Structures are given as structure tokens and as C-alpha cells.
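Appendix C reproduces, verbatim, an entry submitted by the partner laboratory led by Prof. M.T., so that reviewers can inspect both the input and the predicted structure.
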Amino acid sequence: MTEYQLVDSKDTVYRDGTIKLHTEEGFEGMRKAGRLAATILDECAEWVQPGV
């Protein structure tokens, strides 16, 4: 049977087969991390060359 677990930003999430249900605070943290990753990739793009 499928198990669900409500998690927030203070919880340590483990890979245990349960489906994690995140709060709005958790989703905002994921959005912030995604924006940061996109910014870093955009800044590094000028150094990328074919074959490297």
C-alpha cells in the first residue's frame, strides 16, 4: 500500500519508499534552489566549449 508523509523544511527526508507531501514553504525553498542553480549555469555558460 502507498504511504504518504507530510514533510516541512525542518524534517530530514529519507528515501524510504513513502511519497513526500511538501508544504508551501518547502516548495518555495525548491524554487529558490532552482533559481540559484539556473543563475550559476548561466554564468558558467561562457566557459563551455565543444569537446570539453
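The CA atoms of residues 7 and 40 lie 28 Å apart. Additional entries are available on request from the coordinating office.
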